[in-house]
Specification:
Double Stranded RNA Binding Domain, 5 helices
């Protein structure tokens, strides 16, 4: 009887230890977010690819990154903001504008197949929209919460390194 009690206690301890180890393991979503955004809290360079909107989007993006103390004009990783606004017609009549947008974080990754380091897009948000009015203002309204999401996620994933970085 005593032997079976010792066996049951040992079994219970090993099962509870395995359960604790599994609970400590990050989820797939947490590992994916870490892959997408972890850079040891490196500063970010902003690149704008948006004909006719470059100046306005550059001011917007740079201000947001600077407020989070993440902007550096010579840095890698890169945050690339792309956008296009074209007039939207029905027949001969202009009914508004069509908008296409994309925000990507490019960071250095190692390709095990080629054996090379390269920049690759690891985080992306994109969409299309239409607006009956000012496409630029509408686009900034779209980018505002997306930049909030990016900065909050980036700082959360890099939290240990960001708090240790000088000036943060």
């Amino acid at each position: 009887m005593r032997c079976s009690i010792v066996f049951l206690v040992a079994l219970w301890c090993s099962v509870s230890t395995l359960a604790a180890e599994d609970a400590a393991e990050p989820s797939f979503e947490e590992r994916l977010e870490r892959f997408q955004l972890y850079t040891q809290c490196q500063s970010i360079r902003l690149i704008i690819d948006a004909p006719k909107l470059e100046e306005r989007l550059n001011k917007f993006g740079e201000a947001r990154l600077r407020s989070a103390r993440l902007f550096d004009a010579g840095a890698v990783p890169l945050l690339v903001i792309s956008a296009a606004i074209v007039d939207d017609y029905v027949g001969d009549r202009k009914v508004g504008v069509a908008i296409s947008w994309n925000i990507n974080l490019y960071k250095r990754v190692f390709d095990v197949f080629s054996g090379e380091w390269m920049n690759a897009a690891t985080w992306e948000r994109a969409g299309v929209a239409s607006s009956p009015g000012d496409g630029e203002q509408y686009l900034l309204g779209i980018f505002d919460p997306v930049m909030d999401e990016f900065i909050a996620s980036y700082l959360r994933v890099n939290e240990g390194d960001c708090t240790a970085a000088p000036g943060l």
